[in-house]
Amino acid sequence: MKEFKGRVLNGGYFKGEAVVSHQGVNTLASFQSSAIMHSSKLVIADQNNPDIYKHNITGKALCLPQTIGSTTGGMVLQVICSMGINPACMLFSEHIDSLAGAGVILSVVWENSKLIAIDQLGEEFLDTVKTGDTIEVTEDGTVRIL
Amino acid sequence: MAYQYKMKLTPEQIDILEGRQGAVKAKVMETIVRYGDMFEATELVPVTHGEGHLVTSFGLSLLKPVYRIMDELIDAGLKVEAGFTADPRPHDMKNVHYNPIDKLINKKILYGKQDAYEEQLRKLGLKNDDSFTCTCYYPEIGNVPGKGDILSWAESSAVNYANSVLGARCNRNSGMIELFGSIVGFVPKFGLLTDEGRKAKWKVTVNTTKKPIPQILGSAIGIKVMEDVPYVVGLDKWIGNELTDQCKSYLKDFGAATASNGAVGLYHIENVTPEAKELGEALLEADYKEYVIDDAELERVYKSYPVMWKQPQKEGTIAFIGCPHLSKTQLEEWADRIISGLKSAGKTKVACQTVLCTPSPIRKEFEKTARYAELRKAGVGVTSICPLMYTSNPLTKSRRIMTCSNKLRTYSLARYYKDDELLAIITGKED
User: Fold this and answer.
1) CB contact (8 A) between residue B63 and residue A103
2) Is A72 an interface residue toward B (CB < 8 Å)?
3) Domain coordinates of chain B in residue numbers?
């Protein structure tokens, strides 16, 4: 078992599957299709991100460095949270970026979302965690790869 | 439980946060304060250029939470007191060709909420029907911040231009955050609002033998520095030291490419942009990194762009020029180049559907000119839509869209061509 500690942006408990992107996740390109199609699951549509392309991330822990892309990104994250198809956690290895940060806050304040968000987990976290790993996240920002 | 804020707030800001100016305004303020706390902001500072600019101009059906929040704001009597401009509208059935299925998809499915959303925007402070453009900072639109002004904007190319060319101060915000900042009149002080945050982590040396194409130079820098601030030396040799119309148009396209290919919110050009003129290399951080760009590097970056068309061997079917929107100078230059290109190729009509995008006040004036009549006769459309939103229609994926915009290339399946290459295709010189 390997353990990492990050900064809690929105806390909560989670135990489940990790989906890992080693590059910045383009929120608009990744989430737009599922949102437009009113899908019941969030399947990544960004062909430029082979790490997570076509992965269903609903209810899972999305592990990433940061998000990238259009400044509509925060709203797109809010939309998928309002639809209830969001990942259960977003675990950032770096400091959260302004677009994902806005999305997390809009979701928490305006959608009462329980989306867990932890940042600054460090580069080693992304080097260690693999898609399909079971991980446990606790209220204090501890992430355990089981 | 009330949100336990970390930053320093004034009594007025605490009043708003604690609901003494209404519950909805308190929620708006909580969003702004949480946003600032997340980025270790020290305080909230007043927005000194009150005119906002919204990145969400489109009634995309999926944005239901946005429409719900807009209604909450309107019902609470909130609005942007100084008014705001917004990004371009998503479609224009008059100046861009749509087949009947496209029309149905755009009007009824994709952007089915457009009319209702525009009504919400008007109630919240949209300036007028000519306010839809990504280049609100053109004099013809008039949303022009001054040096040192604090803004609450989100459109990445406009934030990039305002910070870099105008010397205003704005973070690279998300949509909705910019509206909330404009409503409460405060934004968190962090990042590009601070002197420290405006320092350059990169020194980029332009060492080319000819004037670099702004779209490719900006792309190369964006890909290299991502969200960092670059300080660019050697470019003044090619674009001059004065912020003329042509220089500003160059920087607009260069900046949009840095913002979309990377996440650049501010750049400095030695001897050109206001802060670089004032502070020079003092803007460089002590441990800055270096990147040298020569002809070979630009060619390498250009050749790295993937062609995403399903049938890349086939010719393009539609060309979009003007993302971000063309300035008056650029529109006139493109018109002249297309007209003279057709003449020298012995053609009277463009070889493919061609669309020039520019803000509506510029377009309306242009429509009164002989150049416009010639362009229309040649089959060129002049519109004020966002070409990126045209590509949201899934049917366009098979349409082999061409562009000389690196932003449009990045966010769609459009294929990038250099200006001269695209002109040759449009005017049929390639035949």
Assistant:
1) no
2) yes
3) 11-193, 196-303, 318-426
